[in-house]
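Note to self: user wants both folds in one dump. Writing first protein now.
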Amino acid sequence: MSDYYISFIPVEPSYVPDSETAQRIRGIAIDNCVQRSFETSDIILFADAGENFESISCPLCKADLQEWWGNAMDSAYSDDEGFINLIAQTPCCNRSCSLNDLVYCFPQGFYKTKLTIEPTPQQQLNIENICQSLEGISGVQWRTIHTRI
């Protein structure tokens, strides 16, 4: 049986909450979770969907970008500094676009701040309510990443 967890990351990858906001995020009530963690980083990291990954397409023209994406990720990454430049030229329509704004099926994204939960198998979570709570506390929008490994 594979592991499944849900991560919540800010839509803006470089967002890091102040200590008071971080404490409030840690205190969000999420019942019946097997595990919960909250992390912040000095560098931008990538939250992937694991086995849920299906496709990547251009948000501008909808072209499939799976073959191009790996090289674009390598170009954006530095071993010392993490992801340093998320802006890339798409090969399909030759326009600038953030790797964070590509259309990932299942959603994925870049972050410096991440709240992760592992729900129990029988648990029904209201993801929308959790995102609304996070947005109310932080003042920024959040993205949900469903990861299966």
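First done. Writing the second protein, which came from a different request thread.
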Amino acid sequence: MISKLVSQLRAAEPSDLNSHLGCLFSSASAERLIKEIAEAQAAGAEIVVGDGKHLRNLLQPHVLKGVKPGTKLWERESFGPVLAIAEVDTVEEAIELARANTYSLHDSVWSRDEKQGYEVARQLNTCT
């Protein structure tokens, strides 16, 4: 589901009124993200949306699944259109992984059970 939604988004220059996302600060920012995506792939992550490329400071949205702790995509905020997904077997494992990094500027909890989702979200260390 998330892959379908993200694949409909498009990054372009600010003058393009048909885009959903703007460009990154610089070409170097885009190149840094591409290297982080490649590092995550080398550690076993799979690109579900995106092509692992950029054009100057434009990076189309990317979704990676199987991102692991220890990679830069896991350990740092990307400040770009990159969504890193880790699948877990238990709620406890999800909470442990979500709390395993130093930044936590953003976390998302997706659940079919609203009450359980709220309880999990309360246990995360996200800045608000």
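Dump finished. Worth passing along: The helical segments are 2-7, 27-42, 72-75, 91-98, 114-122.
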